Amino acid sequence: MIAYILLVTIGKVIVQIFLSCQFRSRLINLKDNEMTRLYGIKLNRHEDLMIIKSDRILAFTTGIKNPVIVLSTSLVQMLEMEELEAVVEHETFHKNNRDPLKIFILHVIAQSLWFIPLTKWCYENFKIMSELMADEYAVTKMGSEMSLGSALLKLIKNSFKTPSTLVVQFSGESVNFRLQQLVEPQKAIPVKLKLFHIAISIHVMLLLMGMVLFTLA
Predict the structure, then answer these.
(1) 116 vs 204: CA distance, rounded Å
(2) Exposure check for the chain: N or C terminus, fewer CB within 10 A?
(3) Beta bridge partners of 49
(4) Is the Cα torsion angle 130, 133, 139, 141 positive or negative in sign?
(5) What pLDDT, on a 0 to 100 scale, did the predictor assign at position 167?
(6) For the chain, what is the mean pLDDT?
(7) Strand partners, 59
(8) How far apart are CA 180 and CA 128, in angstroms?
(9) How far from the centroid of its chain's Cα atoms is residue 30's Cα?
């Protein structure tokens, strides 16, 4: 069992790193150098902002060691300047908090330990909470919910699934929760966890611990 977990984990890590390298190379090929320079000046982001040529409406943060905020030319053309600033502030939280790396690790754990329901629960709820915290950060920086809410509504209509778990996308997760939080910031977000899943997770973890102790003995 331990050997299986290790092999699956190593396999998942290798696959995701390979996909991420391919994805990063594609982004570099799509980079619009002039718009990146121009909006780097407008948004005062000279090192961590990349604008790519794309007809899709995209805004996300990607990378492990040095996360980068990526926007598409279509997004830049669609949003007003204040809306664009709100999106960048949202992604800045993900970058500073190293959310792409954290989500990648939780994703690998959830896939490797698929027989422990708590791992999937942690992975899914971390994504929700990270989006809510990023929204809160953006609202604080902008001083109002208006710009972020307006940008989010526009991007919801044009969501795009990226092929890498090292990506944290602006409109990719928990949209209903995020809109609720913007409209009613004082209302708590319910985090559901079934008792059945807790029982299974505890049982499996105890079983694994027992196997390890038996092996060591």
Answers:
(1) 7
(2) C
(3) 69
(4) negative
(5) 56
(6) 80
(7) 71
(8) 12
(9) 21
- Return the SS3 of 197: helix
Distance, CA of 80 to CA of 142 (rounded, Å): 14
Token digits for 25? 């190379």
Q: Which amino acid is at 78?
A: M
The Cα–Cα gap between 173 and 158 comes to: 13
Number of Cβ atoms within 10 Å of the Cβ of 148:
27
At residue 195 the predicted structure's pLDDT band, cuts being 50, 70 and 90, is low
DSSP bridge pairs for 167:
62
pLDDT score of 88 more than 90:
yes
* C-alpha–C-alpha distance, residues 141 and 12, integer Å: 37
- The Cβ of residue 93 has, within 10 Å, a number of other Cβ atoms equal to 21
Using 50, 70 and 90 to split pLDDT, how confident is the model at 47?
confident
Distance CA 156, CA 167 (A): 17
Q: Which residue has the tokens 């611990």?
A: 209
Block residue for tokens 């300047």: 81
* 3-state class (DSSP) for residue 69: strand
DSSP state of 62: E
Segment holding 104, helix H or strand E: helix 99-112
Burial 195-210 (b: 16+ CB within 10 A, else e): eeeeeebeebeeebee
